[in-house]
Amino acid sequence: MQNQQLMTSLNNGVQMPLLGLGVYDMYKKEAEQAVSWALEIGYRLIDTASMYRNETEIGNAVRQSSIAREDLFITTKVNNDDQGYEKTLKAFDVSLQKMGLDYVDLYLIHWPIKFTRKFTWKALERLYHEGRVKAIGVANYLIPFLDELRLEATEIPAVNQVEFSPYLYLEDLLKYCQERRIQLQAYSPLVRGQRMSDPKLLSVAEKYQKTPAQIILRWALQLGVSTIPKSSSFDRLKENFSVFDFEISAEDMAYMNSFNENFRIVDDPMELL
Ligand code: NAP
C-alpha cells in the first residue's frame, strides 16, 4: 500500500479509490470548501446523498476543480421518500441536475425501505444499463437484505456501504461480501469521534506514532474495506488522508478486531426488515 490512491476494482471492472470523503452534515460554503480542500489534498472519492442536501455544493466544488472528471469518483444515493421505480428515475435526474454532472460513478440505495427497495433496485439497474451511472450499489444491506436482492436482481451490487468500525466489526458481512465480490464500504468509520479516547485504541496509536483516527482508517483499508471519513477541517482532512505510510501488523489487526462491541451510531437496519 505505497501509492496514495489505493484503488479497488469493483465487480464490473470500474476502479474506485478505497479512501474517500463523506460529506454528511456539512452545508453550503462549508461543504464546498471541504470538498475543495479534500481534492487539493488528494481525495478523489466524494460520498454524498440526496438526503444530505449538499449535492449542489459538492457539484460546484467538483466542477471548479482542475481535476479531470474521469479521475474523480462521485457517489450519491436515492433518498428514502424517493424510492420505487419511477420515483427513483426522477430522483436520479434531480441529483444529476443539482450536481451539474453528466453521470455519477456510484448510485446507491440509501436504506433498504421495506416495500419499495426491490423496485428501486430495478431502477438502478436501468440507469446502469443506460450508462448513466458507472456502478450501482446499496447501503445498510445486512446479509438478509443481500440474500433477498440476489433472488431478483440482474446485477450484483458493486458496493455495500454500511456502518463499520473496530467497534462494529461485521465480520460475517465482510466475508459474505468478499466471497461475492461486493465491495464493503465503511460509513461512520470514525464512530463520529465517540471512541477516540478508548485506551486500547490509544495504545495502538502510540505504538505506531499515529493518531487514533489514522489507526482506525488504516485498519479498514488493510481489511480491504473502503472507508469514507467525514471532516470539514483542513487539518483533519489531511490527517485522515495520511494513512499510506505505515502498516499495522497482523497481530495488532487481530487485537483491533477484538474491540468489537456492536456499537452503532445509526439505527440497526435489521429492525426494519
Ligand atoms: P465519521 O466519519 O465517523 O465521523 C465524523 C466526525 O468525526 C465529525 O464530527 C468530524 O468532525 C470528526 N472527525 C473527523 N476526522 C477526525 C479526526 N481525525 N479526529 C477526530 N475527529 C475527527 O461519521 P459520519 O459522517 O457519520 O460518516 C462518514 C460518512 O459516511 C458520512 O459523511 C456519509 O458520507 C456516510 N454515511 C452514510 C450513511 C448511510 O446510511 N449510507 C450513514 C452515515 C454516514 P470535523 O468535521 O470537525 O473534523
Assess the beta-strand content as a share of residues: 15-25%
Radius of gyration: 18 Å
Question: Helicity level, as a percent range?
Answer: 25-40%
> Would you identify the CATH architecture?
Alpha-Beta Barrel
CATH homologous superfamily descriptor: NADP-dependent oxidoreductase domain
The pLDDT mean sits at 97
Treating each run of at least 4 consecutive H or I residues as one helix, how many helices?
Answer: 10
Q: Termini distance?
A: 38 Å
Cofactors and ligands: NADP nicotinamide-adenine-dinucleotide phosphate
* Number of extended strands: 10
CATH topology name, in short, is TIM Barrel
The CATH class designation is: Alpha Beta
Largest sheet: number of strands, sense, barrel closure = 8 strands, parallel
Low-confidence stretches: none
**Structurally, how many domains make up the residues?**
1
- How would you classify the helix and strand content by structural class? alpha/beta
Q: State the strand order across the main sheet.
A: 3-4-5-6-7-8-9-10
**Element pattern in H and E:** EEEHEHEHEHEHEHEHHEHH
